[in-house]
Amino acid sequence: MSAARLCIPLKPSRLLCAYILTSHALAALAVTLTALPQYWSCTVLGFLIVHLAWRLKKHWRDGEICLCYDFEDKAWSCSYNGNDAIKYALDAHGDQVLWPWLLVLNFRRTDGRRLALTLLPDAADDNDLRRLRVLLRYGH
C-alpha cells in the first residue's frame, strides 16, 4: 500500500453465505407449513431452490475483489481475482451503510453495471475494514 493509494483485498464472506442459506431454509420452511395447495407449494419451493443456486453462484463467482482508492485522483477502482488486466473504474452511487459490523457500498462501473459490495467482518482484515470505514466516513 503506497501513501497515495489504499487497496483492500476482499474475499467472499462465509457469514453472508450462511445468511443466504439460512434465509432460504426459513422461507422453505414457511412455505411447507402454510396451507397452500400442493402445486403452489412445489412451485414456490422450486423458485426458492433456483434463487438459492443463483445467489450462491453469484456469491462465489467473483472470487477475490481488490477494492482500491486513489487519494490523489479521489477515484475508486476494483480488480477481480488479483488480475490487474481486468480493472474497472468505479463511481460511488447511492447511499453507503457504515455500521461497525456491516458495510454496504454501492458503485457504478464505467461499463454501466452496478456493483454492490456487502462486507461483513470476515470479508477482509479488521484493519483494512477500519481504514475503509474511516475513509468513507471522513475522507472522500
> What is the β-strand count?
7
Roughly how much helix do the residues carry, as a percent range?
40-55%
Give a short account of the largest sheet. 7 strands, antiparallel
Shape: elongated
Provide the β-strand percentage band: 25-35%
Whole-number mean pLDDT:
87
Distance between termini? 18 Å
- The secondary structure category is alpha+beta
Quaternary state of the chains: single chain
H and E string: EHHEEEEEEH
Helix segment count? 3
Output the radius of gyration. Answer: 18 Å
List unreliable stretches of 5+ residues.
none
Summary?
This protein is of the alpha+beta class.
Question: What does this protein look like?
Answer:
The radius of gyration is 18 Å and the shape is elongated. It has 140 residues and is an alpha+beta fold. The chain is 41% helix and 32% strand. The relative contact order is 0.18. The chain contains 3 helices and 7 strands, in the order βααββββββα. A hairpin with a 4-residue loop joins strand 6 and strand 7.
